Amino acid sequence: MSTATEIIDNLTDDPRRRAPLVIGGEDFASVTETVCRVPEAKKTPLLWYAAFALSGSIALYFVALIGYLVFTGIGVWGNNSPVFWAFDITNFVFWIGIGHAGTLISAILFLFRQKWRTSINRFSEAMTIFAVICALIFPGIHVGRIWLAYWLSPYPNQMSVWPNFRSPLLWDVFAVSTYFTVSLMFWYLGMIPDLATLRDRATTKLRYFLYGTFALGWRGSARQWHVYERAYLLLAGLSTPLVVSVHSVVSTDFAVAQLPGWHSTILPPYFVAGAIFSGFAMVVTLLVPARKIFGLENLVTVRHLDNMNKIILATGSMVGYAYFIEFFMAWYSGNPYEWFAAMNRAAGPYAPLYWLMVFCNVLVPQLFWFKKWRTTPALMLIVAVLVNVGMWLERFVIIVVSLSRDFLPSSWSMYYPTWVDISMLIGSFGLFFTFFLLFVRFLPMVAMAEVKGVMKKKDEV
Amino acid sequence: MSSSHSTLSKADLSAAQTTLGGAANPLFFLCGGLGLAGLGIGFALGWNRADNLQYFLHSYLWNYCFVLGIALGALFFVLLQHATRAGWSVTVRRLAEFLTAPFGLLAVLFLPILIPVILGHYNTDFVRYNIYEWANPAAVHESEVLAHKAAYLNPTFFAVRAVFYFGVWWYLGRFYLAKSVEQDRTGDACVTLRLERCSYVSILFYAATVTFASIDWLMSLMPDWFSTIFGLYYFSGCMVAIMAVLILASIALQAAGRLTDAVTVEHYHDLGKFLFTFVVFWGYIAFSQYLLIWYANIPEETQWYLLRQNGAWKWISLALLFGQLLIPFAALLSRHVKRQKYLLGFSAAWVLAMHWLDLYWVVMPSMKTERPPFNPIDVCLLVGLVGLYAAGVLRAAAGRSLIPRSDPRLEEALAFENT
């Protein structure tokens, strides 16, 4: 079996030649076959139905809870004074963070000529879009009277009511909606050639019509490819600052305030690093089972996972750097409030959550120094899930722990989540997975055209 | 693969092309001589001012951090190329390796900063030569904040940390240069693997030392001010500097008939992209720091910017905004500029000059003068420190190949094209 030896080859580093990105002797036809057989399957697998029933139910439960929240009021959450932001904003920042890997892979890694990104970019971009949808819901419902949410957008009106342009919350509206729009366009643009492939292979009229409509008349001519590649490069260039700006703007929601624990100049780059960290962890969490279930091991090789895990290690170390510098500066500043906030995190009532966060975000990723952990799917799954937990906790620690004890001890108050808080967090996962299952069932999970582009190089070698 | 083979055989990598040859020695003496003369004249002028060397030492710190930043940027560039298994950069990597060679010399050149701090600790007569308020026992006695920070900001610990930083940098610079040169001789591809593996841990040490060095030497000039992003701020400037220096060094070497085949327009294009990247990165970090401090408006933080945006200082701040961010952003966005050697060279020189001004803006307001001070001492010290540093680089480069000639990815670098 040549597969076994090739897997070893693919992981061995020989600086004299670049490792192949597609293994197992796959050729162009078999790549198309491997990717297309999932959306083209005649019979939907039972497992898919089971998973969809579960996640769909949870998503519906989420929708019902939103109705309950809107009709009853924000009081169904555990938010109080001074903890005005709690699970809602924690979930928002968490999901926005998850939504950073896709565009990073498709834009920044593209500009850095990281060819291995081709096998994972479609998948991660889809994840990005669903994560941003989940994220947008939370601040949307947090406004309480959601029928007035359109006041967030600046438009000329006879009341002369304008949003506050100096507020980072408004910058959020612009930053996240721009990011969502561009990510969606980028994802869709990249998918056009693959949609055309599905159209050309379609066996039913309906499939032909639907895939054909969305393929926008793609014929794969040299002229079309030329335009396509220019558009791709331009979108990559435009998306790159967006990857950095979105979480930088989200960080200013906190950092422009004077609250100790929120106000820290390192927050923008630290949030961006954390977002990439959590985004990659989520990609690994989903990709490890998906490549197994759908038989994509030759396209998404262990080497791809190894690379992603290295990025998790790098960004995790950056997050650890930021934790350390924040702690050091809290002492160095000589400011008693800063120091109190730092100590309140480490030894206050929420201390166990803080230490769990440090464990998940700083210590656990260090396992990726070992090649065994970076290249064994089951082991990396453990790390990736723990990183997801840790990054959710990080936002909780930043938001709730800082708010619950501010400058005035008489106004301190603990925050405890209600059943609605917890259900909505779970519900958002249900929505995310519902979208995701629809994606894997009906759209090409791997960017076939792009993967073939990097296989050519392999043939030359 | 076949196409890259022909590139290698076509590229002229003879000794005349890839070593400095006989030019190394005269250049070494020229740079060294200029350096010593610059430092000497600068010191004489500084002493003459009868301001307890305050101007001289501030100017020295400013120019020192400029030169050190080039070496630190070079060190990170080398580490980054190994960590990412970069292929395109092989033909310019050796230049960066040479730039990391003189950390020993830089440690010696740090003594004018360190000695007044130490002497002031033992003899109050010397406190007047000190530029750091926290090293003045009387000031520490009076200020609660300084007394609190004395556990970190004290002369002994300051010196110990400096020794540690230079130890790390000297070791890393020497290790990566020595291994790379060893590979020239042996052609052993395993060296590349080993350097890649070492690079990850090296980056951790690098991040820690550069962060705390910038806190110690630059941030503590205003000891009651603090900013968590400051380490990144200095680092981003270092990266701007090294990309500019690599571009200028390549152009200079090609003008002297070296590396004419090894460094192609494609390499300039990529170096230009990196220069653009780090210009934007610097702008991002600088803006983050400014925005957050401006917005929260907490006096102990805004004091640093108040010094820099009032009076004539605001013109320096604006010059940085336009000169180091907006103008180079617009210029370097163009593919044409990045692929025209001399346009790119001009942009690189411009950005490098702006980075010099940036450090001026960081250091010199501590003089608490009403107007931004400029003095011939600044030029003398710039010539002095750059000259000595260049001499150190030339000494490392003498007799060695200007490219890692046996690097397994050399072919890839020679054949590489931007699509």
Question: What tags apply to this protein structure?
Answer:
heterodimer; A: 461 residues; mainly alpha; 71% helix; B: 75% helix; 0% strand
In short:
The complex is a heterodimer of chains A (461) and B (419). Chain A is mostly helical. Chain A contains 17 helices and no strands.
What topology emerges from the helices and strands here?
The complex is a heterodimer of chains A (461) and B (419).
Chain A (H helix, E strand, L loop, with lengths): L1 H10 L16 H13 L5 H27 L14 H12 L2 H11 L9 H22 L25 H34 L3 H10 L7 H34 L11 H27 L8 H31 L3 H12 L3 H13 L7 H5 L1 H28 L14 H24 L5 H13 L1
Helix pairs in contact in A: 2-17, 3-16, 4-6, 4-10, 4-15, 5-6, 5-9, 6-7, 6-16, 7-8, 7-9, 9-10, 10-11, 10-15, 11-12, 12-13, 13-15
Chain B lengths: L1 H9 L4 H4 L5 H25 L5 H30 L6 H10 L3 H7 L1 H12 L14 H6 L1 H6 L5 H32 L3 H28 L12 H26 L9 H32 L2 H11 L3 H20 L2 H5 L1 H23 L12 H22 L12 H6 L4
Characterize the structure shown.
- The complex is a heterodimer of chains A (461) and B (419).
- With 461 residues, chain A is mostly helical.
- Chain A has one domain.
- In chain A, 71% of the residues lie in helices and 0% in strands.
- Chain A is built from 17 helices and no strands.
- In chain A, α3 runs antiparallel to α16 and α5 (101-111) packs across α6 (121-142).
- The longest helix of chain A has 34 residues, at 168-201.
- Mean pLDDT of chain A is 91; it is low at 1-6.
- With 419 residues, chain B is mostly helical.
- Chain B has one domain (10-414).
- In chain B, 75% of the residues lie in helices and 0% in strands.
- Chain B has helices at residues 2-10, 15-18, 24-48, 54-83, 90-99, 103-109, 111-122, 137-142, 144-149, 155-186, 190-217, 230-255, 265-296, 299-309, 313-332, 335-339, 341-363, 376-397, 410-415.
- The longest helix of chain B has 32 residues, at 155-186.
- Chain B is globular, with a radius of gyration of 22 Å.
- The A-B interface holds A 13-16, 18, 111, 241, 244, 248, 252, 255-258, 263-269, 317, 321-322, 325-326, 329, 332-335, 369, 460-461 and B 1-2, 85, 87, 144-145, 148-149, 152, 189, 192-193, 196, 200, 204, 207, 211, 215, 224, 226-232, 273, 280, 284-285, 288-289, 291-293, 295-296, 298, 300, 408-409, 412.
